[in-house]
Each structure stands twice: as C-alpha cells, then as structure tokens.
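Journal club prep — side note

Before the paper discussion, L.F. wants everyone to see what a predicted structure for a comparable chain looks like in token form. Sequence:
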Amino acid sequence: MKKKVISSILTAVLAVSLAGCGKDENVSVVKAENSEATTSGEVIELTNVSYDPTRELYAAYNTLFEAHYEDTFGQKISVTQSHGGSGKQALEVANGLEADVVTLALEGDVQVVANAGLIEEGFTSEFPLDSSPYTSTIVFLVRSGNPKSIYDWDDLIREDVGVITPNPKTSGGAMWNYLAAWYFFEQQGQSEEEILASIKKLYGNVVVLDSGARGSTTSFVENKQGDVLLAWENEAFLSLKEYPGEYEIVVPSVSILCQPTVAVVDEVAKKHNTADAAAEYLNYLYSDEAQEIEAQNFYRPSNKDVYAKYVFSADSNTITEIPEDGKWINDNITLTDINHFGGWTDARAKHFADGAYFDQIYEQ
C-alpha cells in the first residue's frame, strides 16, 4: 500500500561532524536548525541518510521544502542529513543508524536496508519512476586542455593515464562507473574474458580508490592526483563551477543512466511517528519547483518539460565552462541502464559480491 503523502520543512544549513555515530572522516552530517520550532517543542525531526554528492542538492531542496510544508500545514520540521559512500551509508542504516528516509545512489543500496527488515518490499513502486525522482550519468573530468587526450573509455587503459574512481565496495557511484566501462568494452565487441582484461587494466591504472565519490573528487581536484576523474555528472559540473578554467568535462561515447533511489525507512519512521512527513519529504522531490532545484544542481530532472529546458545542442563532447544560459544537459551520449545487467540483484552477485568479478580483477 502506498504511504499517505503529506509534507515537511527545513531551514538554513549547518555542517557539523557526525557525532555519536562512529563514522569516518568521509562521512558528514548537515542539520537544518530552526530555533523557533525547537524552543516550541512542536518541530518534526527527520533524518535523511544520503550519498556523497548530494550535499548541495539537499541544502537547496530543504530550504524550498521548508516553505512548502509550513505554507501547507503550518508546522515546522528539522532535517538532519548524513552523507558518505552510498554502500557504506546503506550498511550504517542496516546496522542501526536511524534514518527516516534514505536517498541513496542506487536501488541495490536501498535493498540492503530492506534486507535488514527496515523497509517494506515494493519500495521502488512507492514513488513515481521506480522511486527515482532524478537521474544522472557518469562522465570524465580532466584538467584544462585535456593534456592526456582522454576522450573515451579505451583511453583509460593506456599505460600513461592515472585514473581516480571510488571503491565499488563502499560507493554506489563507483558501481555505476564500473558498469559504464563494462558496457563500453562490450559495445566494442569484446568477449566477457576480454572485457575482464580491459577492466583489469583500467583498475590497474587507478591511483587511489577512495571510499566515496566526494572523496575521489577531493583526490583529483584538491590533491591533484591522477589524470582523469570518473565522476557523477553533477560532481563534474560542480568542479567546473568552483574552479573555472582549471578543468573540463569529457562526455564519453557511451555511459549508463544512473537512477538514485529514495525510500522511507518504514520501521524507523513508525518508531519516530514520522511516516507521513517522511513520505511527503520524498514525494515533493517530484514537484515542479523541486525539479528545477535538481536541474540547477546538475541532476537530470524526471519531469520532461523541466528536462527540456536544460538541454543544449552539443557540437562537441567537451564542456569547458558552465553555460551562461543554464543549459547543461548533453544528450549526445548513448546510455544503457541497470536492466542491461539483469537488475541490481544480478549485477551485485556477478560483479560486486565477495569473490565476484571486481574482487577477481582488482588486486589490493
């Protein structure tokens, strides 16, 4: 049965350390504080456990959602956010981190929480479009001028190229990276044995395997490691925005449609009496206003009309700056999706489970 949908709210954003939850330095928390609501004792409190690159998105979304909820229901809400590698975040929730909602990098990570008995079956049908309110894809971030001439996936297996990508064991984005590369080599007509050899060469070129996508961005952008970052599209655009003139985005010939999945953590929401507010927090992600926020933060909105506003006609697959007109979506790319790999259950078992293909090709 679909959850009853009502709304929630949030306020200004304050970054704090993840106190009392035993997280490492790659995990952070953002809490929206509302002093008036807190002192009145009438505030609804929600915790959103999300993945690495969504900090900026949810900071903007929560402010929008605050006004929506208060205007509609006249009640305040305070949302605490937790960020880290998606796979690690899923395990944290499964092992006791109390999240009212999860907004993770992929369905398979939400399934980990469901397997722990915390989310009811059928969560991908709870909200529209397989409970994926926005999508993304995987692109390359290179240094200005693209000094190593990196234009497609086969360039990543050259001996002179250093690659930065997170660890598929802890990062959902890293799984998308791996599968996008696999699809490219498959499209080149390689046999499974040949694909494994190519993927092994690629990971042999990895300079550092961070636990999450934001950590990998830091390694490449701030620590100047590697020649190319395999990046979520939004992470790559944020780097262009924050470091103008220093980096370029290369859109490869093929990639994968990344579908981050959202879900109410049913058992926790029941315990906190927040099920309705949590459901509306996720439902409002599909509103026109929220879809605009998602697009402005370089996520591909699911609303076709909003999506169309941000598409540009690309005459090159290299992007050197944020377009002044705000049109940033390059559709000149062939995207596969997780169904090509048999869904997340099959993909995990074949590629990412202990002893599966990734463990076989990557030598620690």
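L.F.'s comment for the group: The two ends are 45 Å apart (CA to CA). Keep this in mind when we get to the figures.
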